[in-house]
Amino acid sequence: QVQLVESGGGLVQPGGSLRLSCAASGTFFISNYAVGWYRQAPGKQREMVATITSGGTTNYANSVLGRFTISRDNAKNTVYLQMNSLQPEDTAVYYCNTYIPISARLTTGTWGQGTQVTVSS
């Protein structure tokens, strides 16, 4: 089992920005894995937001394309999600997880507590 901890969420006004962090714990070396950010809004299914492979290839949901950027810092054993131009529809609990690169749906880690992002004026 891999163990990832999400942080960086909070309350932000529309148009604002947040940077979420997905930090690997223990001896887990995040650079060896594809990692995705997922979110779940109240009453909705969990959806993929952005993914990054171990080689650095990225993919984004259409709803966040051009606004969010996923990146990794292997030295810090962390994957980030830079979220710009946030809108109320981005409000959700955000999770990170490892996945098999053939499909972001094929997550391989344990879902954690996530980090709450609330976009509201």
How does this structure look, described?
- This protein has strands at 4-7, 10-12, 18-24, 34-40, 47-52, 58-60, 68-73, 78-83, 92-99, 115-119.
- The chain is mostly beta strands and 121 residues long.
- The strands form two sheets. Strands 2-10-9-4-5-6 form a six-stranded mixed beta sheet, with no helix packed on it.
- The radius of gyration is 13 Å and the shape is globular.
- The termini are far apart.
Number of helical regions: 0
What percent of residues are in strands?
Answer: over 45%
Adjacency order of strands in the biggest sheet = 2-10-9-4-5-6
Number of strands: 10
Shape: globular
Order of helices and strands: EEEEEEEEEE
Unreliable stretches: none
Proportion of helical residues: under 10%
Structural class: mainly beta
Cα-based radius of gyration, to the nearest Å: 13 Å
Average pLDDT number: 94
Distance between the termini: 39 Å
Main sheet properties: 6 strands, mixed
